[in-house]
Amino acid sequence: MRAALMYAAGDVRVGHVADPILKEPTDALVRITTACVCGSDLHPYRSMAGSDAPVRMGHEFIGVVEATGSHVRTVKKGDLAVAPFAYSDGTCEHCRAGLQTSCVHGGFWARNGIDGGQGEAARVPLADGTLVQLPVTADDALIPSLLTLSDMLGTGHHAAVRGGVRQGSTVTVVGDGAVGLLAVLAAKRLGAEQIVLTGRHTARTDLGRAFGATDVVAERGAEGIEKVRELIGGGSPIVLEAVGHRPAYEQAYGVVRPSGTISRVGAPQYEEAPIGFGSLFGHDVTLTGGPAPARAYIDELLPDIVEGRIAPGRVFDRTVDLDEVPDGYRARDTREALKVLVRPGTGKL
Hints:
Elements: E1 2-8, E2 11-16, E3 28-37, H1 42-47, E4 55-56, E5 61-68, E6 80-83, E7 86-87, H2 93-96, E8 107-108, E9 121-124, H3 127-130, E10 132-133, H4 143-147, H5 152-163, E11 170-174, H6 178-189, E12 194-198, H7 202-211, E13 215-217, H8 221-232, E14 236-241, H9 246-255, E15 256-264, E16 286-289, H10 294-306, E17 318-321, H11 325-333, E18 340-343
Parallel strand pairs: 11-12, 11-14, 12-13, 14-15, 15-16, 17-18
Antiparallel strand pairs: 1-2, 1-4, 3-5, 3-9, 3-18, 5-6, 6-10, 7-8
């Protein structure tokens, strides 16, 4: 079958890989109908060292179940299902606590010999704990929004939940990428009253306003921090950091008020950041967040999409087929596209 492969920074190609097969009785085989290029895919795209052994790419997908192992009970052949960006058994102590990203038997797509989502098909380990059947067909207009359940919407929602967003909250969202915009949507959904979005790209911040942002701050650095603090008055009680780079973290702790909370879901691209007396500790600021257990939130968020209360799929502004995935990466990297939807085609198992 065909799949996206990364050989080095800036070098993504579509090539042939082995067809997936059932290896364990808990596996399912899924023919992928929709996937996407994630912001976190850009980290290796910008920094990966060259290799003769390319790596599979992609961790968000929807597909049709083509076969199941003998122990699989929750999905069957012909079901359309969404896969969260981490696979999990659903039964270990961490899964039962709603932290599937720490599943003792789970893991992440496109690592350690596990298939990636940017391809024609994938073997899904631990299918009962991972896959969620969708109440639509593969060509339904809701598919882009339903795909956000795999990562983006769950991650934005996780930021808001861990940040303590509730009815009447005042929130600042750092970052106008897809996760930042869906953090705005999530905060609005949970009842936030004032939502300040920081971002410089008008098309994106306009979508942020449509999702519920009440204010937009385009300035960065000290000027941006001052502007946010002026808008809110004394700093933001809750800050959702959805970028992962050091300047975004510095902006987050620059705008948070004493005793406030920073909820960080942008995958950190740095090892050290201020947390001591002069930044967080001295002002009783809480730092929280982490990888979103997207599977834990799907059952809650799915009905709002199906019933039309939210439309997170609006973040997709470009669609490519599998052969065009390298162009999708370039479009994401150059900010020509906010979020790229991938339609792998009619691959068969």
